[in-house]
Each structure stands twice: as structure tokens, then as C-alpha cells.
Amino acid sequence: MALAACSSAPTTHGEVEGESFHGKELLQSDSNRMATLAMKENLESLFLLMDKLYRRNPAEWKKTAASREAAVAYVRIAIMERQPWLELQEKRDVAALSLALQPTFTGDRVAAFVYAAADTIITAHGGLTSFTLIDGLDPQHVFNAARNLEIANWILNSRKAADGKPLLLSNQADDAQSNLSYEREMGKIIGRLDLLASYTTERYRRSVIGYGQGLVAGPFLQFLPVR
Fold first, then answer.
1. Average pLDDT for 114-123
2. pLDDT at position 157, please?
């Protein structure tokens, strides 16, 4: 039985799927494409986190809409269309993130937190969610966004509301049940941001090195006459 179990086919966990070709990709370099895909994945992770947080904190979505699905849709539209979220008092990026994590905040904290986190990421990318050859990234800003999300995550897990309860129920780790899916998803976002920051820095550095290599090695890479 043990041998049969070892030889059985592994459980399917899905497979990598690429996007179909779009004409706008002709205006993207490899790094542009990587930044665009990372942004898409990070926003989708935030939307997944929003749904998880709403499920664990149903009192929050009731402050925004008549259903959890409607609340998710409203926040998603506000993020993708760069519309302000009224409860954040016209604050953006880290200022909005700070307000959303204040113990005295009485609005929909899930919506405010996810909106502010998304706005922080987009602002760090120059206010863009898709990138072409004329767009550049500041790797330090992307790196800073990753650190800001780490700080926000720590505050969310440690700070208490005015009534002494957690700001939001997120992870669950006790004798009865363990659920760290929120932590894992947030870790994916931070990891993507760090990788993009490192890649962008390396790309600029390698461009300079490549240029220097061309100047030094160029004369030695000439074909020699054979007749």
C-alpha cells in the first residue's frame, strides 16, 4: 500500500498560464512586461485579501454596501480608476494607510486598508499600472513600498482598536485551527515588490557594464580575414 501511494499521480495544483498577445506589448521591453505583470498580480492579491478580510470581518462591508460582493466591487473600481475613497479624507498612499490603521477610524477599515495599500503600490510605480518603453521605475520607491506594507501588516496584527479588540481579524493560529492564508498572500506582494526593485536596479547596472564590455572587448571580437 505504501509503494502504491508513492507511485500514484501527484495532486494537480494548477498550471502556469500566459496571457494572449496584445498589440500594446510591442511597446514594452522585458522589464516593462515584468513590471506590468507584477502590478497585476499584486492588485489581484490585494483583492483576494479584501475578500478574506471581509469574510472574517462582516461588520466592515456593511458600512459600504448591502453585500460583501458589492463592497468588493466598489473598492476595486475605486482602485483601478484611481478614484478617491471618501472615508480617507482625500489622503493618498502612506497617509491614507496611516489613517486606515488608526484605532479611532470608524469607517470601513477593510476597504480603507486595501485601497490605501493599493494606492501606495501604484504611487511607488509612478502612478501607473501598465508600463511601456517611455516609462521608468525608481527602484528605491518600489523597495520603500515593500517596507511600508511590512510595517502596515505588523500594525494590523499588533495594534488594538479603542475597545481593545484587534483592528481586523486576519490570521488565525490557535489550538483549534490555524489559518495563515492572509499572511502568505501579503508575503507574496512584498516578495514581488522586492524582486522588482532588485531587478530594476540590476538592469540599470548591467546596462552600464554591458556598454563598458562593448568598449573593452569590441576590438577583440572582430572576425579575422581568412583570404
1. 97
2. 87
pTM of structure: 0.80
Radius of gyration of the chain measured on its C-alpha atoms: 23
Distance, first Cα to last Cα, the chain: 72
Distance separating alpha carbons of residues 15 and 188, to the nearest angstrom: 18
Helix (H) or strand (E) holding 179: strand 178-179
Please state, in angstroms and rounded to a whole number, the distance separating the CA atoms of residues 73 and 81: 12
Average pLDDT value for the chain: 83
- Note whether 112 and 99 are within 8 A (CB): yes
CA gap 112, 2 in Å, rounded = 51
CA-wise closest residue to 123 among 161, 149, 103: 149
Quote the pLDDT of residue 107.
94
Q: Which stretches of the chain are DSSP H helices? A: 2-7, 30-56, 58-61, 68-80, 93-100, 109-124, 139-158, 181-217
Q: For 167, what's the count of Cα atoms within 13 Å in the CB-facing half-sphere?
A: 25
